[in-house]
Amino acid sequence: MIDVTNLSKRYGDKVAVDDLTFQVKPGVVTGFLGPNGAGKSTTMRMVLGLDTPTSGSVTVGGRRYADHPAPLREVGALLEAKAVHTGRTARDHLLAMAATHGIGRRRVDEVIDLVGLREVAGKRAGGFSLGMGQRLGIAAALLGDPKVVMLDEPVNGLDPDGIRWIRDLLKGLAAEGRTVFVSSHLMSEMAQTAEHLIVVGKGRLIADVSVAEFVARAAHDTVRVRSPQATRLRDLLVGPDVTVTGGEPGLLEVTGLTREQIGDRAATAGLTLHELSTQQTSLEEAFMTLTRDAVEYTAEPTAAGRTAR
Amino acid sequence: MSTDTLRRPTATVPADAKVTFARVVRAEWIKFRSLRSSVIMVIATVVLLAGLGLAFSAVLADNPPEAGTPAPPGGPSSLDPLGASLGGVNLAQLLIGTLGVLLVAGEYATGMIRSSLAAVPRRWPVLVGKIVVLAGVSLAVLVPTALLTFLGAQGVLGDEGISLGDDGVLRAVLGAAFYLAGVGVLGMAVGALLRNTAGAITTVVALLLVVPGVVSLLPERVSDAVSPYLPSNAGEAFMSISSNPDLLSPGAGLAVFVGWLVAVVGAAVVRLKRRDA
């Protein structure tokens, strides 16, 4: 369980995280979604106490991360860049990390096998590809058999096999009752892995919803209707929650009504339809629509501030 | 397959797994010995200390100085039997100081520091653990090196040589090993303060070699007041047996040198605790 309360972080004038409050619950994979620069990595660093919040607080399992006697048993984390000395072998890196908690070689070998690095465990990490570096970071995260697993952009640099492996791993960890918190800037990736979403933009919370709800809320499906009597049909369809746009003569794009509703109304009025199809908004588009709104929302006070000055 | 391994984890993660200072020291020892650069630097320090000590002694044996020749500033004088045998200290300190910097600033350069501090979020044990390891390794290696170099050098000097039992000689030889270990610690603390390898190495070199020279150019009143308290001159006070009026007494020199270490390490710990990693 991760509890973030009114968390803010400022670097000079720049606000990286702005009054974030959310909870990450055990048992499900929670996606931490936002465009690059939304404050995801900063938030994760604050969870680990690597960065100190400007205000607000974050606790893991009810305590500040630094107050846990065995931090690696509490949170296993993969942070964005490779946090490994390039001159050290993968095994030595893990042995050193494990030694801080009195965890022995057997567990180190176990996590090496788990992430599939056995053949290169004796090689220096500086020569690792991005994907191998990610696997090493995940091995380090799992060393302490942690209650919370927190990964920053874990699929970066992984091949399709690796991506599937991560997905299964994360779901497996959540199924064991662990708290799994994974950041990404790719909505499509999160939709396949996460059950719950924390969406941020410009450091602010945009949504704290289940993936199903997010998709339903964000995706306004459009129905494409082609009819020789488009103008008459339009009058039949427009209403308070319905938008109708027309790109070319005889074509209507309708949101707010289902295909069935449109077809029924046309039939009742005796209008001919040549096409009636649902255009699904992709998750990526839905996500971009949401975060774009957030950007516009934050732009307002800035503009006001400029005029005041 | 993957989740199976995770389902029986308690077998390999001990129930008493938690951070203790002794464990952090052990982790830092693993980090130290698993970097090629640290092993190479320690060996180079040993070779330089022994090689130059013997070489200076050989030169001294062939060209005994005329009585009354003044000692050069900054570091053991190579013009007396003790100073010649410890003649490698001046260069060896640059190697071990650089090693100290690398062991800390290298973690910032590679991003390793985030892993280190995530595992030990109280932070200070990481730096103090590094210091314990480097100081321990340095003393374990350099005390025998200094003693053997001294004995070898006196063999080279023959009749001109002095004995380890002579007044203050053992203190000076052990002092040289202690001084070098201290410079390594200084490098670590400066590395932690600056978080930048090049800047930290430059700072250590400047503090040990450049600043004494610059201070000696200041008006005599100022230079006399400041000079003995610089770390290299404070070290010289307990690494030499000549009663140089420009230096502190050996005891005072040791106190001042240790004072420098405590101050710089203290500042490094405070900065490590306060600043974002």
Report the CATH architecture of the largest domain in chain A. 3-Layer(aba) Sandwich
Order of strands, main sheet of chain A, comes to 5-6-7-3-8-9
**First-to-last CA distance of chain A:** 43 Å
Please count the helical segments of chain A: 11
CATH superfamily of the largest domain in chain A: P-loop containing nucleotide triphosphate hydrolases
Number of domains of chain B: 1
> Greatest contact pair?
A-B, 55 and 43 residues
How many individual β-strands of chain A? 13
The structural class of chain B is mainly alpha
Helix content of chain B: over 70%
Oligomer state of the chains in this structure: heterodimer
Provide a count of the helices of chain B.
Answer: 12
Structural class by secondary-structure content of chain A:
alpha/beta
Alpha-carbon distance between the two ends of chain B: 36 Å
Uncertain stretches of 5 or more adjacent residues of chain A: 296-309
Shape of chain A: elongated
Summarize the helix and strand pattern of chain B as letters: HHHHHHHHHHHH
Largest β sheet strand count, sense and barrel closure of chain B? none
Question: How large a portion of the residues of chain A is in β-strands, by DSSP E?
Answer: 25-35%
